Amino acid sequence: MGTTADLRPGAVIKYNNELCTVIESEHRTPGNLRAFYQVTMRNLKNGKLLENRFRSGETIEFVRVEKKNYQYLYRDGDMFVFMDNETYDQFPINAELVGNQARLMKEGQEAAIAFNESIALSVELPPNVILRVTQTEPGVRGDTATNVSKPATLETGAEVKVPIFVNEGDLLKIDTRTGDYVERVKE
Q: Which domains are assigned to the chain?
């Protein structure tokens, strides 16, 4: 147990019997009223944003979460199999927990997985991943007057909008949070 003074971004708390991670916490003291903490948090199960006011000094249940890097091995139906790099233990994680990031995951890639006791809470890819373009239309010469983009299919099957100069076989840096093209990478 802790108090509102312990609320920091990244802390995981139990709120309404759900695990939530604190995104922002602001201590406010309005005029002649009692002080309170305005807290923005994200539900770890469904990803929804929540806001709540906690009275100053109120007790809050903090949850210990361990985050560790694991290697993605393969997909088995609606389960993703990961391996601990130290013990070589393999364990499946439900596709719902991986979410939309699954389209940017390739075999052998690292991912940070947060656990509470033995229950997986979240899967987080690095901020950027490097993927190869497997299929895209060739760029037309003279189409450079504006920021023209075209669809490209990556090696994981994901489709992203890329600039006209990107060709098949190029390596691209992709932002995992938005799924957008960042830059072309040299081999």
A: 2-62 (2.30.30.30), 66-124 (2.40.50.140), 128-185 (2.40.50.140)
pLDDT tens digits for 53-64? 988 888 888 888
Assessment of whether the complete model's pTM goes beyond 0.90: no
In angstroms, the CA 43 to CA 63 distance is 13
Tens of pLDDT, residues 60-109: 888 888 888 999 999 888 889 999 988 998 988 888 888 788 888 888 88
